[in-house]
Structure formats: structure tokens, C-alpha cells
């Protein structure tokens, strides 16, 4: 029975390994910065960022699994795993909003905390874009270019809405199972009465536009690099 990597060409395998290496080094830097801060300040204030980084890795792990095995997986497997991916996907760009925690604090230089949070935010954003690239490729392969980009746009807008739910209403991905009624009520109330919740749509649309422009830029930079090479 062929291994998942057997579905990929040698350049694709090399590209995937290089991506994993760079992301691994970048995540390690964030973990080191968080750990050093614990020793510098003798407090665990930013340790929660490690959990946020773990949640950001989950959708990338799922998309990588789907990408490596897409040649053999059927729609009945791809769809439920894709829904789980979509449920966890907002956790990756959510880390950008952890910049809310940035303020001068005694014991640690302000610039250090800025570098620490920016490092985590960058990793969250790159994990989100890498994961979405995988998922968009799967959709494009089956349904075409336009459907692929429509999927990416909708996924980023939904993730922006998820970021709002997490940052301002304090919901998380687990609430789909542990607190579904309250989550459903709050979502429906905002859908049925949009004018009562301007912050919901302000965050969703502005954050979504920012994420979409960033994603398109990263994809175009990748294409430019390929053409030059």
C-alpha cells in the first residue's frame, strides 16, 4: 500500500519539508521567548500563548493530513474533516488579537513583550495562510479556480467572525459541543439583527478584508518567486 508521500512529486515533498522546518523554527522562537519571559519576570502571564499556538497548529495539521492523502480520501471523509478544520481555523488568525495584551509592565522591557507577541501573531497568521493554501488547493483540484478562491474568501470571513466570537464574546471552538445553545443564540441574534451589533460586522468585515488582502499578497509573492526561479 503506498504511503501518503507517494502521492506527491519530489519538489512537492521538498517544499513541504522546507515549510515544516521554517514553521518549526519560528514556533520554537516563540516558545523560547515565552519561556525566557517567565524567568525574567517570575510570572506566567503570557504562557497562555503556548496554548493559542497549539490551537493554531491544529488546522494546519488537519490540512496537511488532507493534502498528503487527498488522492485516496473520498468525499465522505474529506467533508467531515474539512468541517472540523473550519471549526478550528479561526484559532490561527485569532492570535493577532493578542496584541490587545501589549502594555508596559515592570520586569520586562516593552520591546521584548512586543517582539514576543508579534512572534506569536506572525506564527498564527502564517499557519492560517499555509493551512488555507492546502484547503484551497483541494477545492480547486475538484471544483475549479473560481470555487477555490470563493472558498478561501468565505473561510477567511467566517474565521473573522469566529475571531469576534472568541475575542469579544469569549467563545471557543469547544463551545460547539459544550455550550451549543448559547453559541447558537448569540450567532442567530447577530444574523437576524445586524444593526444592533455594529461591532460584530465591523470586526468581521475589516478583519476579513485584512486577512484576505494579506493572503492574496502571500499567494502572489509565492507565484512571483516561482516565475523568477
UniProtKB/TrEMBL annotation:
Superkingdom field: Bacteria
Transferase found in the keyword field: no
Protein name: Uncharacterized membrane protein
Membrane-spanning segments: 20-40, 46-70, 77-96, 108-131, 143-165, 199-218
Taxonomy of the source species: Bacteria, Pseudomonadati, Bacteroidota, Cytophagia, Cytophagales
One Pfam family of this chain: DUF1361
Keyword Membrane: yes
Organism: Hymenobacter gelipurpurascens
InterPro entries, alphabetized: DUF1361
Keywords of the record: Membrane, Transmembrane, Transmembrane helix
Amino acid at each position: 500500500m503506498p504511503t501518503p508521500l507517494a502521492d506527491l512529486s519530489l519538489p512537492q515533498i521538498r517544499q513541504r519539508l522546507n515549510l515544516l522546518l521554517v514553521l518549526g523554527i519560528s514556533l520554537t522562537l516563540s516558545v523560547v521567548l515565552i519561556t525566557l519571559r517567565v524567568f525574567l519576570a517570575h510570572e506566567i502571564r503570557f504562557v497562555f500563548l503556548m496554548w493559542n499556538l497549539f490551537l493554531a497548529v491544529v488546522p494546519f495539521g488537519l490540512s496537511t493530513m488532507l493534502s498528503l492523502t487527498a488522492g485516496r480520501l473520498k468525499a465522505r471523509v474529506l467533508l467531515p474533516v474539512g468541517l472540523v478544520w473550519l471549526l478550528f481555523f479561526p484559532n490561527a488568525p485569532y492570535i493577532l488579537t493578542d496584541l490587545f495584551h501589549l502594555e508596559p509592565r515592570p520586569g520586562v522591557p516593552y520591546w521584548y513583550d512586543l517582539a514576543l507577541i508579534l512572534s506569536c501573531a506572525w506564527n498564527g497568521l502564517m499557519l492560517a495562510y499555509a493551512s488555507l493554501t492546502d484547503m484551497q488547493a483541494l477545492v480547486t483540484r475538484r471544483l475549479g479556480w473560481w470555487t477555490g478562491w470563493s472558498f478561501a474568501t468565505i473561510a477567511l470571513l467566517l474565521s473573522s467572525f469566529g475571531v469576534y466570537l472568541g475575542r469579544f464574546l469569549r467563545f471557543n471552538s469547544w463551545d460547539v459541543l459544550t455550550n451549543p445553545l448559547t453559541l447558537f443564540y448569540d450567532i442567530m441574534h447577530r444574523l437576524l439583527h445586524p444593526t444592533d451589533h455594529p461591532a460584530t460586522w465591523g470586526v468581521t468585515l475589516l478583519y476579513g478584508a485584512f486577512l484576505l488582502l494579506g493572503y492574496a499578497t502571500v499567494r502572489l509573492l509565492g507565484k512571483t518567486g516561482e516565475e523568477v526561479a
